[in-house]
Amino acid sequence: MNRKISNLGKTILSRLKKAGIKNLEELKRLGSVKGYLRIQSLEYKRLPFCYYLYSLEGAILGKSWREIEEDRKRELRQKVTKSREQKRIQQTLPGLGSHTKENRRADRT
Fold first, then answer.
1. For 32-59, what is each residue's pLDDT tens digit?
2. What's the rounded Cα separation, in Å, for the pair 7 and 76?
3. For range 75-88, the mean pLDDT
4. Do 88 and 99 form a contact (C-beta atoms < 8 A)?
5. How does the average pLDDT of the chain come out, rounded?
6. Phi/psi at 95 (nearest 5 deg)?
7. What is the SS3 string spanning 21-84?
8. How many whole angstroms separate alpha carbon 86 and alpha carbon 71?
9. Of all helices (H) and strands (E), which one includes residue 101?
10. Phi, psi at residue 27, to the nearest 5°?
11. Whole-angstrom Cα distance, residue 94 to residue 28?
12. Between 76 and 83, where is the model more confident?
């Protein structure tokens, strides 16, 4: 991400690039939650919602993160929390999420 995008400073742009998100179009395709989680996966600590998650959402919408409605912010936080919980469960029980068609067929035999 070389060009200036509203809401996103040098640090967040650099972290997006490290996370494999190269431009605003790709961020829009992924969405703010997946973008945030990709950046989060590169960090050792949790990142603040207000700076990262809301800024990504604001960049996608073309407005300041401060203009995002509280209901939307709550929805975004819930999605991040749900994704973190699902990841934690998958790490705890690795075979739980691996029921593809092939695995179900193998289970029946």
1. 999 999 998 887 666 777 788 999 999 9
2. 17
3. 86
4. no
5. 81
6. -80, -10
7. CCCHHHHHHHCHHHHHHHHHHHCCCCCCHHHHHHHHHHHHHCCCHHHCCHHHHHHHHHHHHHHH
8. 23
9. helix 101-108
10. -65, -40
11. 30
12. 76
CB 89 within 8 A of CB 65: no
Work out the end-to-end distance of the chain between its first and last CA atoms, rounded to an integer number of angstroms: 50
Q: Is the pTM of this model over 0.85?
A: no
Task: Indicate if the pLDDT at residue 93 is higher than 90.
Answer: no
Cβ 1 vs Cβ 22: under 8 Å = yes
In angstroms, the CA 78 to CA 36 distance is: 13
Q: What's the rounded Cα separation, in Å, for the pair 9 and 51?
A: 10
- Report residue 63 as tokens: 């407005």
* Amino acid at residue number 63: K
**Residue 2: pLDDT over 60:** no
